[in-house]
Every structure is written in structure tokens, then in C-alpha cells.
Design goal:
single chain, alpha/beta, six-stranded parallel beta sheet, 16 strands, globular, binds ribose-5-phosphate
Length: 295
Amino acid sequence: MEDWCIVPGPASRDLAEKMGKQMNARLIKVEYKIFPDGESKIILSDKVRNQPVILVQSTYPPVDRHLFQAFMLSHRLSEEGAEVNAVIPYLAYARQDKEFLKGEVVAMRVLARLFRHVGVRRLITVDIHSVEGLSNFSIPSYSASAIPLLAQHIKNKVKLTNPIAASPDFGGSSRVEAFSRILGIDHLVLEKKRDRVTGEVKVKQVDLSIEGRDVIMVDDIISTGGSVQRASVQLKKAGAKRVIAVCTHPVLVAGALEKMRKAGVDEVIGTNTIPSPVSKVDVSPAIVEHFKTLG
Ligand code: R5P
């Protein structure tokens, strides 16, 4: 593997350290502080030589702060002559990748431009909301998948009764297919509708009988928990014994965990693209694997 060094952004120190160990890479010292008005100050305390660096910074809430910290670091690194590879495990704004409503700003397009302008040469994320979103980038971009790691975790750690996997919406079909293939189980796809103006989510009732079965619901993001909550209600109505919600990015805002628990969700399992009480699966091997392919 190339002689990488890793720059841990303030949002992703743990993940960067894990990657560093697996890649036998030098970790660059980064110091930062937040001013009372919310501005960030960042100091690169180690020298980077003219070498390829991997900047690791997830952009979970506070989204814009973490994003701007990624821009600041990348800008500085490129000023030092480093070739910046940005690992943004949770890529904020990925759900705003199209003009859904007339006049809507395609935030992903803005983001893609900004990353290029601050010197990012290659961007790697994990389970981007939709792979088409990557087409907004004019630099090489790649979405690694945490699905095999999540499936393996379920296989090894969770005892299941007659399990079936489920996606809360059509958009997650390929994710749930990949997941269920690894576990060798069936899957179903629920029908979800989101009102683009109010954001309200409705999930249609499940036609199939899943009496007494454990359902593993697979999603890319759990943010407010609204999608999983509504899907869980329908799954329980259809006879599900247990509902286990699995996701790559546990954003978990607005009391999501409590909301899902009240809707009958028995367990929530996520990865460490975002630190949270449910971040049980380490996603670093999937990211490191991608760098191995680069030589
Ligand atoms: C939507 O299409 C995504 O795949 C997730 O299902 C959604 O973003 C989750 O958001 P929330 O938890 O707020 O429903």
C-alpha cells in the first residue's frame, strides 16, 4: 500500500485512528477549538510532506460546522502541497441530490464544487444515499459499503427467529437485497411516501403475513427515526415478532431512539460513521479496503 498519512478531522478522531492502525499510516496531529460565536480554529501541528494524505471527517450534526472544518483542513493540506483524499464517512446533504421542487438548490452540486475548490483530489464516502449523487463530483468519488459488515454483525451477534429483511422504501432495495443475500434470507420492500413540502412520511401496510418472524429493517440513514417508526408500526401489524433496525448512519436527531422504541423497534444497530449509543459496527475495514485497491 502507498505511504499514506492520515489527518483526523475533529469529527472523526476514533475512526481515523482505527484506519491508521490498519494501514500502518502516520497520524498527523490536529488541534482545534470552537470560539464562543461558533467559529472553528484548526491548527495542523505536524508537518505534511508532499505526499498523499487521507483526511477523515464525517459531517454529522452540527453538519455545517463539520463540513466547514473539512474544507479548512483540506485547504491547508493542499496549500502544503499534499494530495488530499477526503474520507467523508457520512456525507451530509446527500439526500439533496436532485431538484425535487422547482427552484430547489441542489446542495450536493454545491458541495461537490466546494470540495474540489478546497483541493480535494478524491472523495470517499460510505453508503451514500443514492449512488447517482456521486455524478455531481468532477473528481474521482467512491461510496464504500458498510452493508456486508452490518450483515456479518447480525449473523454473529443477534439470535433470530425465522428472519426476514426489509427496506422501508424502494430507494433502499439494492441495500436490502445485498444484506439479505449475505444472510441467505428473504426480503421485502415497503412502500413509503414522503411529502416533499411538509416532510411527512407515510408507509403503506404490509400485504405479506410475517407472523412470528423477526424483521431486520435496513436503511442508509436513521435521522429523525420517522421512516423506521412508521415502517415498524406496519411490520408489527403484519405480525412481526421483533423489529431490529440496522443502518449505516445513525444521525439520530429529534428523539429518534425513543420514537422508534415507542413504535415497537426492539433494537437499533448502526456503524461508527457517526458516534452514537448504537454505533456498534466499525466501518473502517470497508474504507481501508478501498485504499488497498488504489495500491
Ligand atoms: C430516505 O430515503 C432515507 O433512505 C432514510 O430512510 C431517511 O432519510 C431517514 O430519515 P428519517 O429517520 O428522518 O425518517
